[in-house]
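Collaboration report, partner site 2.

Our partner group contributed sequences for two proteins of shared interest, and the home lab folded both. The records are reproduced in the order in which they were received, starting with the first partner submission.
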Amino acid sequence: MKTMNRTENSEDNFAGAGLEYLERINSCFNENNLNAIEGLAKDLLKAWIEGRRLYICGNGGSAANALHIANDLHYGIGASGESERIVGLRVEALPANIGIVSCLANDIGYENIYAHQIEAKGAEGDILIALSGSGNSENIVRAIKTAKRIGIKSYAILGYSGGKCKHIADIPIHFMIDDMQVAEDTQMIVGHIVMQWLAKNKHRKIAKNNKEF
């Protein structure tokens, strides 16, 4: 394999640019945000066992990530692994229903598309995962504030400085990176870390189910 010259112009050195990008992702993770991710995983396991609901929201690429993570937590955690297949979390990606989103945006403003859904559907003891690169999107800020008022525990996966959400979310999972693509990548990495951990611990949900019958 040809030895790569990291000093070459990135336009001519795709491998170097790729490795540099991957290094930026890796450098985002530290003890603080890994501890916060562990807290999220354990709270989701508890919600799974107790039948609580999870809501996920975001904008743009983060909205797409919300749908992906919801799929993993709805189906993937119960279907993965060698033990029996079971149902996953009661999870909803709030950007998913374009009818609801466009109705709320048109009638009461885009800034309320998530807060209104949480107010209508959420209950004390549920969990919210808010995805935001900047942490300053008004609809995400309002979603967290509404969750707090109802008694829904909020996690916010954030990039850049963390913005307003870093200060109002119950548990911020903050990646100090000034790059929107890397910030969005960290959202999916968190989702997949949590998904695989929950799949490995689904025996706890199975044990709970067996006790109930």
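Second partner submission, folded after the first:
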Amino acid sequence: MGYYPIFVEMAARRVLLVGGGDVAHEKIGKLVDADAEVTVLATAVSPPVREYIEDGRARLLQRDYRSGDVHGFEMIMIAADDGAVNQQIADEARAAGIWVNAADDVANCDFILPAMVRRGNIAIATSTAGASPALARWLRERMEDFLTDEVVVLGDLVSEVRQVARLRDHECAAGCELVRTPPPLLCTVCPNRIPADRWQEVIENERRALLNAAEELSRVQDRDGELKDSLLGLLHRGEYQRSKQRMVEALGVDRPLLARATP
């Protein structure tokens, strides 16, 4: 098998979740959080799964699976413990061109789910190609250690600074014969193009600055006792705009455009 890692846009995507137990509970929360339209198909559902249904975040078909139930859905998630049922659903889904995932049943999967940690706008997914869920969990826990408060703030910062840079790219691209669209991609000889290595340098420098700020805030907490706001909140409130301005200046996106390259 050759797995290709992707993040899929799930908003408004129709998903059939077969099963209503603990495994279904593990899956339904992430699906709902991604704004998928989830239908649970099960003869019985656990209290945590039922909460999603009663809150209107998912709908319930309370019965056994019937042939043809996959139709009308864009993705099938199987959280049952019956290999024969898994295979029947997977066969029907594949025949209809619908992606299917069966928990702990790689043979009946078109895709597998990585172990994922998310904070703010940053999501890190790890996978062992289905070979070792225990190792995937171990990796996920190490990624949780990596996603510290300053990294989360950095994710927001880079997103905002990139928007500023993209506006400048659009301005430079307007009327330029060398631009590649869509979207405006400045030509390789453009004097206004920010090299990828420069982005990396600025991001790393700002990460260190935010780390220093976080360490200083932690020392203040240790000295003065518990603060009313979280460390993440304090970074956002006290360092965010200064950090953004430093990045903007370091990348030069606050300066006037240089003359465009000529054909």
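Feedback sent to the partner group on the second submission included the following. The first strand starts at residue 14 and ends at 18. The chain has two domains: 14-113, 149-251.
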